[in-house]
Amino acid sequence: MSPANTAHAATPHPAIAYVHTLFKPEDWFCNTCIRQTDKRVKQDFLYARDFNAGAIEKLETAQSEGYNIYTSMNAFTSNLESRAGEDVKDIRDLYVDHDGPKNPGDLTVAQGLGKIEADVAAGIIPQPQFTIASSESKRYSIWRVSGFTPTQAEEMNRALCQRYGGDSASVDVSRVLRLPGFINLKYESKPVVHIVKQTKDSPYTIDKFRVEFDVKVRVVHPADPVAQQSHAGYYQKACEIAGVYEGDYSDGRRDGAYCWDVPCPNKDAHETEGESGCNVLIYPSGRYHYGCFHNHCSNFHWPEYRAYLQSEAAENGHRFKLTFGDVPENEPASEPEPTEQGPAQPAKQKTRQDIKQDVTGLVTVDGDLFMSENIPPRKVLLRTVSNGESVFFRPSINQIFAWRGIGKTNLGLGPVSYTH
Question: Greatest CA span in the chain, whole angstroms?
Fold first, then answer.
């Protein structure tokens, strides 16, 4: 049992009342434990009504093993053990993570809190229901809310963060913040996270926040099983080319996503050694997603992970762009080098009409022209052993092909299906 919590048998742990205030009894939320030494992540999903002394005991055990303790700000889809933004079901809270200035001119924690008080007095925003000390010098401001969509909540978090000097990387609706009553192991002084101020106000509606914010249109992606399967193949092949471990595959997710637990590319940026807590998802629509639970990776998403794979592939001598179903497999990975006559111009894209006739009258074409055509993603049926180049596809235009020589016509047939 941690030193901060030895008296909880006689006095209810402060985290219990806190969680029961943040959530409704039927809300499915997440406690996240991140070990200070190696950033190993453990997650525990449960209903708010089940957060009791037994749950506290589990968290205290984790703390005694060196884990920092966090809890989610919003409710997730019931029985779905995933903390992706798409999995957030109900918005319960807005927040600002007052982490201190990172650039000249940024607000200090005290200035940010002072501006909140001034705006409350001016009727611009309501009073936060919680002000929490996450360390000796850092604070959280938390507003209980109702009626927000996930998109509205995230953009409001962003607007509040910008106005009150919060951590710009900490605005997402799936975020976890430190849980009151537990020790912050990041610092040698090991301060206990605690509630500085609390009000009894009911949850606020969006009209109480007179802060300008933009709302992005949330796109719904229809399921496409063929795309999901083919994109999984693209991902695995890209990892093979890049020499990067594709991760430990796990299935059974209720949202139907393919999931690989992968090492963190930013592990060198961790405060201590450790690379866990990251995953690559391919949703039923075929959409790619990369996520990492470490705060320093909050701005590292699929485009960044894809760029990481591309850079690793280049290190291995791969000269082409990695394809994930959106670029041809033989598209050069870099722009042409400039020449003495000036910047190099991109090579003209050839078409089937780009043919030439030599002096003998023989008509010739480039046999690889089909690779540069704009056609939908195709499943690779057969690759070369030497360097993994694609040979046959399904569906494919190269299953039957022909060419004409002098005095004869040649016909070639490719396999319609292939198993190994």
Answer: 100
> What DSSP letter does each residue of 272-321 carry, written as one string?
SS---SEEEEE-TT--EEEEE-SGGGTT--HHHHHHHHHHHHHHTT--BP
Neighbours of 42 (CB within 10 A): 15
Taking CA atoms, 209 is separated from 30, 48, 201, in Å, by 27, 27, 15
At a CB cut-off of 8 Å and minimum separation 6, what does 208 contact?
A: 125, 126
Does the pLDDT value for residue 339 go beyond 70? no
> Which pLDDT value is given to residue 396?
46
- % the chain with pLDDT above 70: 70
Burial of 369 (0-12, 13-18, 19+ CB in 10 A): middle
Per the document, the length of the chain is 420
- Alpha helices for 67-128 (secondary structure H): 109-121
Q: How does the average pLDDT of the chain come out, rounded?
A: 80
Q: Using the 8-state DSSP alphabet, how is residue 266 labeled?
A: T
Which string of b and e fits 131-152 if b means at least 16 CB within 10 Å? Answer: bbbbbeebbbbbbbbeebebbb
DSSP 8-state code for residue 192 = B
Please say whether the dihedral angle defined by the alpha carbons of residues 251, 257, 260 and 263, taken in this order, is positive or negative: negative
Calpha distance 122→209 (Å, rounded): 12
Rg (CA), the chain: 28
10-55 per-position pLDDT tens digit: 688 999 999 999 999 999 999 999 998 888 889 999 999 999 999 9
- DSSP string for residues in 355-376: -EE-TT--EE--TTGGGGS---
310 or 273: whose pLDDT is higher? 310
